[in-house]
Design goal:
The protein is α/β, with parallel strands linked by helices and 257 residues long. It folds into 2 domains: 177 residues, Rossmann fold (3-Layer(aba) Sandwich), CATH 3.40.50.300; 71 residues, no CATH class. The protein is 34% helix and 26% strand. Strands 6-7-8-3-9-10 form a 6-stranded mixed sheet, sandwiched between helices. The two termini are 36 Å apart.
Length: 257
């Protein structure tokens, strides 16, 4: 077993409201080994995104510790990559300028920056679109640009918060398939928040199932399926049915009762 890259240790969190504290997470503990892909699922509003915000250093837990690489996260975590649900490309920049922004912030020389941007755009299927502005791109192309902007600076950890939720079904499958190869090539550690059990099973090495707010871990389900996985025909993937059923059995009581 690889050493943990990420660790949530007895994490609880409450938000202040006019009527008093509102607990959203209750004593959550789990580790994510380096170079693995973990999916987190749970009912809407249960605190899934709050866990990502803690790891990104945007929130401090009310109790417990959030750690990356053995160090406590106590401030904004500039070492991670974050892919939100919306693409959030700056409309006044071209695609290449948007993708290259993280390298500007890291003071990467212009020549190297241009080379790396061109390479990652080709990797995500956007070769030749670098001079286009976001409004000239489809929703799926904007999402590819958002992923490219994260991968271009090669973060060790990538956080994804419902990244494909706004896409149509066909584009979503294509993006899931692309993501498998891109993440594997970089060897990054990934945490994906999703409502989609099929997506979780097809992409992850482990699925963490959260209960209703205040969220506790209901189950941790290992996904032992060979890679690469066929996201276009999931039920043709050997072992997919059993893996899906294992996750659904843990999750169904949280969404149906």
């Amino acid at each position: 077993m690889a050493a943990p890259e990420i660790a949530f240790e007895n994490v609880s969190h409450s938000f202040a409201t006019p009527t008093g504290p509102m607990p959203v997470i209750d004593d959550v503990s789990f580790e994510v080994p380096k170079g693995t892909f973990t999916a987190v699922i749970g009912p809407s509003g249960c605190g899934k995104s709050t866990l990502l915000q803690m790891l990104a250093g945007l929130l401090r837990p009310s109790k417990g510790r959030v750690r990356q690489g053995g160090r406590d996260i106590t401030a904004v975590n500039s070492t991670i990559g974050f892919i939100p649900q919306q693409s959030l490309l700056f409309p006044w920049y071209t695609l290449a300028q948007n993708v290259g922004l993280p390298l500007v912030f890291k003071n990467v020389p212009a020549a190297e920056r241009a080379e790396r941007v061109a390479r990652i755009l080709a990797d995500v299927g956007l070769d030749g679109f670098g001079d286009h502005y976001p409004h000239q791109l489809s929703g799926g192309m904007q999402k590819r640009g958002s992923i490219a902007r994260t991968l271009v600076y090669r973060p060790d950890v990538i956080l994804m918060d419902e990244p494909f939720g706004a896409l149509d079904a066909q584009t979503r499958m294509i993006m899931q398939d692309d993501l498998q190869g891109l993440v594997a090539a970089q060897g990054a550690t990934v945490i994906l928040v999703t409502h989609d059990i099929t997506e979780a099973v097809l992409l992850a090495d482990e699925v963490v199932v959260l209960g209703r707010r205040p969220a506790r871990i209901i189950a941790r389900v290992p996904i032992d399926l060979a890679r690469p996985r066929n996201v276009f025909e999931p039920f043709a993937v050997p072992g997919f049915d059993d893996a899906y059923a294992s996750v659904w059995q843990k999750f169904r009581a949280e969404v149906l009762s």
